[in-house]
Here is the input.
Amino acid sequence: KYGLVFPAGVVSHTGASGLILGGGFGWLTRRFGLSCDNVEGLTLVTADGSVVHASSKDNADLFWALRGGGGNFGVVTEFEVKLHPLKSVVLGESLYLGDDIPRLLRHWRDFMPQAPDDLKWNLSLRLALNGENVPERVRERPVLSQSVLWTGDPKESRRCLDHALSICKPIEVTRRVLSFLALQTMADAEFPHGRRYYTKSGYFKSLDDSSIDHMVEALASIPSPMTQIELAYLGGAAARVGAAETAFGDRSSPFVVNVLGNWSDAAEDAANIAWVRNLFGRLRPAMSPGVYVNFMSGDEDDRVPEAYQERWERLVAIKSHYDPDNLFRLNQNIRPQKRSAMLGTEV
Here is the structure.
């Protein structure tokens, strides 16, 4: 309405608090940074019922922890955020089959480190949907789906979109100008409430050919038409925030791979979870240490310290101060020190 936007996620019904407190990847990450990078202050209720304000001037340690440390420190009741002028974007989309899939993946990998901040180029490996807007010859076949977004001056979009949409032999190429609201809601139908989801993800400093081959090979056995292997590249504004500035931390491994299982029938849990775990197991040796907490499943408690690495001890200390009894624990949990240890006695 006012031509101002906040860098949110990619699905409009994602909860804002969880998104921001965990970091916040989305369409505008390269242009404006992570969601948590655009927070200037927060008000929260802590475990003892206190109302606390956190900013760069008030409770600075807590402000640091809340930007990436998840919902470990209290219930946030108010976010003070930076908004940015943006009314519309240009979006190009297309599909690829067969040998064009690994070719495009390699081209994207080599291109993105030099890409302008205004370009957000996401890839997804999946089965083509069985829908009216998908050519019949492609439906339910393994494809690479790409979304090429330009967030700058629409007049300057042509060069980058022409390049991305002309590689190899694209199918069903579309290009359109969208309002930001239309962009934020267009994927909602793919991730409805009530479905079954299971994810495993990680970062790559560079995306090697072997990892690309593993992902392409896994397409042949993908168990659900809604399951996807999502690939994104950070960089841009997100990469210019120092590793020590927020609890989210280091951004030096810019390739993000999220293996996202998405199915509807509980009887298919085992097959879908096994497929995600198997592919992740093949990819993990080439990954950098670290994981994005908002892409973690509920059985990955052992990876929470990995998410924060050298920031872990500082987060534990802040958690121990604000929530010593771990009231806020239904999350990617940072456990407080035991009270006796905090007092310097033996546990």
